[in-house]
Design a protein that fits this description.
Layout (H helix, E strand, L loop, with lengths): L4 H22 L9 H6 L3 E5 L3 E3 L8 E6 L6 E12 L5 E18 L3 E3 L12 E21 L4 E4 L5 E3 L4 E8 L6 E13 H5 L1
Antiparallel strand pairs: 1-6, 1-11, 2-11, 3-7, 3-10, 4-8, 4-9, 4-11, 5-7, 5-10
């Protein structure tokens, strides 16, 4: 059978349409599980902030510490959405970030400023806790990052679930002033969601 030029063009268009249709049907549509709307709708998104801390200069302590911790028997995994350090002082500060922290030797306070983001939750509270303080003797974790926050500024780290805190572990920030003779003030907040360990293992 002889194919004319018109028949060949039509055949090419038809074949192209079939290929496009097949490619379209094979696309897998997925949602971003780090999306705040999804986690809030699932009643699993939480925000929390520490009290204002200071160190250096006229302060008694050289360092300050902030932790997002997952209790040993929580039976949930914590996925960090973001962490924010706000420098309230006229001098830059340094933050050392520690991962997979198993324990901290010292005295820390627990923040009461923790809430779920969805007001339809009927007061559900997270397993995760925020701790802060100056009196820490030793950190049992992995030092993995160093940050400098300018004066009267803030640093936002958008982890988007990239940091997972298992039961019994913490995510820790050690803060100190760049100029030791100046007292630095700062505060830290975390946003995270929680998922049952069973769903993580499925």
């Amino acid at each position: 059978m002889k194919i004319t030029q018109n028949q060949y063009i039509n055949k090419s268009k038809s074949t192209k349409n079939i290929v496009n249709s097949e490619v379209h049907s094979q696309l897998n549509y997925s949602c971003d599980i780090s999306n705040g709307y999804i986690q809030s709708k699932n009643l699993s998104l939480f925000n929390g902030v520490s009290e204002e801390m200071d160190c250096g200069g006229n302060s008694t302590f050289e360092y300050a510490y902030f932790l997002l911790s997952n209790p040993k028997k929580s039976n949930v995994s914590i996925y960090v959405k973001n962490s924010i350090i706000t420098n309230l002082s006229p001098s830059p500060i340094i933050s050392k970030v520690y991962y997979c922290v198993e324990d901290v030797a010292g005295n820390l306070d627990s923040s009461n400023n923790i809430t779920i983001t969805n007001s339809n939750s009927s007061g559900s509270m997270p397993a995760g806790r925020i701790f802060f303080g100056n009196d820490v003797e030793k950190i049992y974790g992995v030092y993995g990052q160093n940050l400098i926050i300018p004066p009267y500024n803030m640093y936002t780290s958008n982890e988007n679930g990239g940091i997972v805190i298992s039961p019994g572990f913490s995510y820790l920030f050690e803060i100190s002033p760049v100029k030791e003779e100046i007292t630095s003030n700062f505060v830290m907040s975390f946003s995270w969601w929680e998922e049952p360990m069973s769903s993580y293992l499925d």
